[in-house]
Write a structure and sequence with these properties.
The complex is a heterodimer of chains A (114) and B (113). Helix content of chain A is 0%, strand content 51%. In chain A, strands 2, 4, 5, 6, 9, 10 and 11 form a 7-stranded mixed sheet that branches. Chain A has 114 residues and is mainly beta. Chain B is globular and about 40 Å long. Classes of the chains: A mainly beta (114), B mainly beta (113).
Chain lengths: 114, 113
């Protein structure tokens, strides 16, 4: 039944050690999003893919990269995690980019940076 | 740019009591408005959305919300809260595009037995 799957659910990494978070979807949606949600804050969009087209938010740090090898999978790479990158990372999908296209969220990956 | 304010960080209600969660937005045009719920350990789930038409919107799980343009508000209501409604609730506002949607900081709901 799971439609948007995120692995792992919990990730611990060391300061400066690259880490990759994974998202997969069974909805065959065109759009995939990555959000960062820090404790007690609103989710903040980092970037999104429309098919293979990558769209970076203007204030997303260069430390964050993403890959989408096919429709089903999307990865978030953090090249050199800092303490400030500890957060919940949410993946979402939608069939299109219109606000009328509902976003479906995964359960998130909680990243801890030691 | 659009923004969303949820004035209440944490609300506690008794089971069976009514609930209203506040949401105020700032946006220069007609907004698209959303309420999402996030249960512990889960992703966000859409409760309801408003685009146009009837300003009272019905959602899932017995929730409703009313769009009041004059007050720039989109408050979420439920007549009788169940223990399973304990969660974090997020209001969001957007223009036409999903990638321009902005979330509020959330309201945590605790339900007392």
């Amino acid at each position: 039944d799971a439609m948007v799957i995120q692995n792992p659910r919990y990730q611990v990494t060391q300061f400066g050690k690259p880490v990759t978070l994974s998202c997969s979807q069974t909805l065959n949606h065109n759009v995939m999003y990555w959000y960062q949600q820090k404790s007690s804050q609103a989710p903040k969009l980092l970037f999104h893919y429309y098919d293979k087209d990558f769209n970076n938010e203007a204030d997303t740090p260069d430390n964050f990269q993403s890959r989408r090898p096919n429709t089903s999978f999307c990865f978030l790479d953090i090249r050199s995690p800092g303490l400030g990158d500890a957060a919940m990372y949410l993946c979402a999908t939608s069939s299109g980019l219109s606000s009328t296209d509902t976003q479906y969220f995964g359960p998130g990956t909680r990243l801890t940076v030691l | 740019a659009q923004s969303v304010t949820q004035p209440d960080i944490h609300i506690t209600v008794s089971e069976g009591a009514s609930l209203e969660l506040r949401c105020n937005y700032s946006y220069g045009a007609t907004p698209y408005l959303f309420w999402y719920v996030q249960s512990p350990g889960q992703g966000l789930q859409l409760l309801l959305k408003y685009f146009s038409g009837d300003t009272l919107v019905q959602g899932i799980k017995g929730f409703e919300a009313e769009f009041k343009r004059s007050q720039s508000s989109f408050n979420l209501r439920k007549p009788s809260v169940h223990w399973s409604d304990a969660a974090e609730y997020f209001c969001a506002v957007g223009p036409y595009n999903n990638n321009d949607m902005r979330f509020g900081a959330g309201t945590r709901l605790t339900v007392k037995p």
